[in-house]
Design goal:
The complex is a heterodimer.
Chain A: E1 5-6, H1 8-15, E2 21-24, H2 34-42, E3 48-54, H3 58-64, E4 68-75, E5 77-78, E6 82-83, H4 85-93, E7 100-103, H5 106-117, E8 123-125, H6 133-136, E9 141-144, E10 153-157, E11 164-172, E12 178-179, H7 187-193, E13 196-204, H8 207-211, E14 224-229, H9 247-256, H10 260-272, H11 277-284, H12 286-291
Parallel strand pairs in A: 1-14, 2-3, 2-11, 3-4, 4-7, 11-13, 13-14
Antiparallel strand pairs in A: 5-6, 8-10, 9-10, 11-12
Helix pairs in contact in A: 1-2, 2-3, 3-4, 5-7
Chain B: H1 6-16, E1 23-25, H2 30-40, E2 47-50, E3 54-56, H3 70-73, E4 78-79, H4 82-90, E5 96-100, E6 103-105, E7 110-111, E8 114-115, E9 123-124, H5 131-137, E10 140-145, E11 152-153, H6 170-173, E12 181-186, E13 189-194, E14 199-205, H7 211-216, E15 224-230, H8 236-245
Parallel strand pairs in B: 1-2, 1-5, 5-10, 6-11, 10-12, 14-15
Antiparallel strand pairs in B: 2-3, 3-4, 6-7, 8-9, 12-13, 13-14
Helix pairs in contact in B: 1-2, 2-8
Classes of the chains: A alpha/beta, B alpha/beta.
Chain lengths: ~300, ~250
């Protein structure tokens, strides 16, 4: 097996280019790979197409930093705060730049990734009929179900094939085999669809740990192009069993990003003025300790013995 | 009669919409608390679904800011992906779903995408999330709104989540096989579709909110279902259930 361990800087430099379609936030509100979001901003990546059902806060930061040219998403904003101020400025005023919005619902976005994962020309869905999402996203087409003799319109969702899916996980080995648990959002579809998968592991473990429970492997290690070890890579979002959500951080971001100047000051303080994720963790200090989940609610072991 | 806040009344009104044994997309905040109240009162076998990929038999023990927070993962009945829970929604397994919105119109269409049109919006709202899917494919849609004339409008500028579309048979004609708005729960009243067009009518008005006031705060000429009465205030049992869930008094 190939050792895929890389630093955050290397993995972002080599794995995500200008103009790439990137899945960030496949887990909806959990396991959002903020460490990569911050590094993309520091490296000045441009013209990204963001792909995600919901990426709490992260997408808004990338809009504000001018990294995004297009977004294919169901929801962009701050889940506990409300409207995304940077997203609003970009769409309403072209500040700091104009962006293209491709509207989806959560289900159709997930099915678009699934279509790409399985090499299908489209996925038929019964959602979106009657919704103006069909008008504002011309990639979605309505067709009569050819297998039905009765009127039966279905929406054809074309594949969305990301260049890169970035996924934060609880643990992985250095070869790209990973365990992810809790609600999964579209992590599986995103990983199976993307050309490259960048894994951010809170913990690096021996391969035997991952192999002991292959049902907790959501996407195969051979799809993974790089593994980065960064504890709390998902901060301020939660990670099941390891990190609580830092709601105060989101609230502070939401308040300070209301005006462009406030956002730029926030960006300097938390991203541009911070060299890497180790420095970010150090800056959080005891606040990060308070977010660590210390309780234990372990799953029962599952026996895989063969004889 | 127990004292209660407007939000507590809305939670209890929402809880009353959940029937025992139903599978319900509960969303966040107010509806998730309503799900908990329903479970503790008249619907002990209701199941809650979350689009991040969770099913629960009982609400989380601790305060949630998002549906993906750790307390919602602990003790879940099913932890899976988004396409699984929304796929069974498409399969017809979901009885009811709650959504909120910036704008709703007299046929129950909901806008959470654009104010001022998609071409050159004056306000870009966050978008559908799962709302369009829940509105299209659940058997009953339950909408939670603040009751202001600029929110309850004659016609929404953008239909994110379809209700009755242009009314009458328009929803079925668009290919939607089931569903539609069953109730709109606001801070002043409950509206329900009525008559052949399925137009939203006043079904009950909350204590302290006269029908005239409700009509005044509605952006279309609101008609009343014959026999509309005051929304029954929360019972002691309902308030006890709510306080058992909302231990910190967030909704008080």
């Amino acid at each position: 097996m190939i050792d895929k361990l890389a630093t955050l800087q290397q993995a972002v430099r080599d794995g995500i280019g200008d103009g790439d379609a990137v899945v960030l936030g496949a887990g909806l509100e959990a396991a959002i790979p903020f460490a990569v979001v911050f590094e993309l901003i520091r490296q000045g990546r441009r013209d990204l197409e963001l792909v995600a059902p919901i990426s709490d806060g992260a997408a808004d930061m990338l809009f504000g930093a001018g990294c995004v040219g297009a977004v294919s998403a169901a929801w962009v904003g701050n889940v506990s705060g409300g409207l995304g101020h940077n997203y609003r400025r970009a769409v309403e005023q072209g500040v700091p730049r104009n962006v293209v919005v491709n509207d989806y619902s959560n289900f159709s976005l997930g099915m678009a990734l699934m279509a790409a994962a399985y090499g299908m020309p489209y996925m038929p869905v019964r959602s979106l009929l009657g919704s103006d999402i069909l008008a504002s996203n011309p990639a979605l087409k309505v067709l009569q179900n050819p297998l039905s003799d009765e009127a039966d319109p279905v929406v054809l969702v074309p594949p969305l094939k990301p260049d890169v899916a970035v996924l934060a996980v609880q643990r992985a080995d250095r070869f790209g085999n990973a365990h992810l648990w809790g609600s999964l959002g579209v992590a599986q579809e995103a990983a199976l669809a993307a050309d490259r998968v960048l894994v951010l592991a809170d913990e690096i473990v021996e391969p035997g740990v991952i192999a002991s429970d292959p049902n907790r492997v959501v996407f195969p290690g051979f799809k993974v192009s790089a593994v980065v070890h960064e504890p709390a890579a998902q901060h301020p979002s939660p990670m099941t069993g390891i990190w609580k959500r830092d709601t105060e951080f989101y609230t502070d971001y939401h308040r300070r990003s209301r005006e462009r100047d406030g956002f730029l000051a926030w960006l300097e303080e938390w991203v541009l003025g911070v060299p890497d994720h180790a420095a970010y963790r150090a800056k959080l200090g005891s606040r990060l300790d308070d977010l660590r989940i210390r309780g234990s609610a372990l799953a029962a072991p599952a026996n895989f013995a063969a004889s | 009669m127990p004292a209660y806040s407007t939000q507590e009344l809305m939670i209890i009104a929402a809880a009353r919409e959940i029937r025992d044994g139903e599978v319900v997309f509960v969303g966040m905040r107010l509806p998730i608390t309503a799900f908990g109240v329903a479970r503790l009162t008249h619907a002990p076998n209701a199941v809650g679904l979350f689009e991040c990929g969770l099913a629960r038999h009982a609400p989380a023990q601790d305060m949630l800011y998002t549906m993906s927070d750790p307390p919602n993962q602990l003790g879940a009945a099913w932890a899976t992906g988004l396409t699984q829970v929304m796929g069974i929604l498409q399969g017809g397994w979901v009885h009811a779903g709650f959504i909120g919105g910036a704008e709703i119109d007299r046929f129950g269409n909901i806008n959470t995408s654009y104010i001022g049109g998609a071409e050159k919006p004056t306000v870009k709202l966050p978008g559908s999330g799962g709302a369009a899917d829940i509105a299209a494919m659940s058997h009953r849609l339950l909408a939670i709104m603040n009751h202001e004339p600029h929110r309850l409008v004659e016609r929404v500028g953008y239909v994110t989540s379809p209700g009755g579309l242009a009314g009458g048979g328009a929803r079925r004609a668009a290919g939607l096989r089931r569903g539609g708005v069953a109730a709109v729960i606001t801070d002043r009243a409950i509206l329900r579709p009525h008559g052949p067009q399925g137009e939203l009518h006043l079904a009950s008005f909350h204590p302290g909110h006269a029908p005239e006031e409700v009509r005044e705060k509605t952006g279309w000429s609101l008609r009343t279902i014959p026999g509309a009465t005051e929304t029954p205030p929360p019972t002691a049992e309902e308030m006890a259930a709510l306080h058992a869930i909302d231990r910190e008094g967030f909704w008080r």
